[in-house]
User: Fold Core Histone H2A/H2B/H3 domain-containing protein from Pyrenophora teres f. teres.
Amino acid sequence: SARKTLPKVPSKRYKFKAGTVALREIRRYQKGHELLLLKLPFSRLVRELAVYYKPDYL
Assistant:
């Protein structure tokens, strides 16, 4: 006699408590060494802010 197999039921996704995933992400990015912002756009922003706060600087 052939064994009867139960149809696969998709398992319910586990729900983490609020903020758990966010804290995990924060730790991941703090450990990492890759740049999250590109250098050129960031330097442009810094220059723009420098001119805004001290116009005779550049």
Observations:
- Residues 13 and 51 are 50 Å apart (CA to CA).
- The mean pLDDT is 88.
- The two ends are 86 Å apart (CA to CA).
